[in-house]
Design a protein that fits this description.
9 helices, 6-stranded mixed β-sheet, two-stranded antiparallel ribbon, Arc Repressor Mutant, subunit A
Length: 286
């Protein structure tokens, strides 16, 4: 799909599923074929049907497809699907709003940022699919990074002096079937920040903020070593501040999918128990 010469768009009358796909693409700020397949074509053998439909939506300019570089530097990367001009028009008509509501809103799309964005999308989709199948949680409401960035949290550090600006990768509110809610902040770590002081500064910021807020931070890491480093830093900074490090939950990205992200014992609590599930914390295992 990416790199093909531009031609006149094909005529296509979008179905209700097409509109839902277009809305997801816009809401996420760009996704891959895999994200669409997992949500809208989940049955065995539906991959070909998914690709065929997305090809038609791209050809008709409801979506655009851009080939990304490989994250490993070898071979080709995934195709990033974003909303196209016909998609903005169809979505505006469907929702009864102006087309300008679906304009560009993201930062410059450098390859490193894009792969981070897709990793965040993996986590978001896993939470949404898991919630839809859950008997404990009724709804998952996700606030994306671009919206959080418009109102960043600034925390004064009594030791370093300057204010720390906190912009999580997302904020998640899980609504319980009994009407209660639990809020989380999400950090998806790609292991690219090698300066330990930068990591410690962010951890201190969250610890200082936590004194007046109740949202735990769910930290998704690329591997066990990174998770251990993060946990050690969190405990160290918490002790310096006489704070509670158990606000940090750490899980390896490879262990998270729609079956495990809520129900699986895949989360380690800093300075607390290992291998806990989020559903157990909500009383779901009673």
């Amino acid at each position: 799909m990416g790199g093909m010469p531009r031609t006149a768009p094909n005529r296509l009358c979008p179905t209700s599923r097409d509109l839902a796909i277009i809305e997801m693409v816009w809401s996420y700020g760009g996704v891959t074929h895999d994200h669409i397949q997992r949500r809208f074509f989940p049955t065995h053998g539906a991959r070909a049907a998914c690709y065929a439909r997305l090809s038609k939506l791209v050809a008709a300019e409801y979506l655009t497809g851009t080939r990304l570089p490989s994250s490993s530097g070898q071979g080709s990367g995934p195709i990033l699907l974003t909303i196209g001009p016909m998609g903005r028009r169809a979505l505006a008509e469907s929702l009864g709003v102006s087309e300008s509501s679906f304009g560009r809103r993201s930062r410059a799309r450098a390859p490193l940022f894009l792969h981070h964005h897709l990793a965040i999308s993996d986590v978001r989709l896993a939470f949404e699919l898991a919630t839809a199948a859950s008997g404990v949680f009724a709804h998952a409401d996700w606030t994306p990074e671009w919206r959080l960035r418009s109102q960043p949290v600034r925390v004064s550090d009594p030791v370093t002096g300057p204010k720390t600006v906190l912009v999580p990768d997302g904020a998640l509110t899980l609504s319980l079937a009994d009407g209660g809610e639990q809020e989380f902040l999400i950090e998806v770590d790609m292991g690219t920040i090698t300066n330990p002081q930068r990591v410690r500064t962010k951890l201190r910021g969250y610890l200082l903020r936590h004194a007046g807020h109740s949202q735990p931070v769910l930290w998704v890491v690329p591997d066990e070593r990174r998770g251990q480093t993060l946990t050690d830093c969190a405990i160290s900074e918490a002790h310096k501040l006489s704070a509670d490090a158990t606000m940090f939950f750490v899980a390896q990205r490879a262990t998270l999918d729609q079956q495990t992200i809520l129900d699986g014992e895949v989360w380690d609590v800093a300075d607390g128990p290992s291998r806990v599930s989020l559903v157990s914390l909500a009383g779901g295992n009673d």
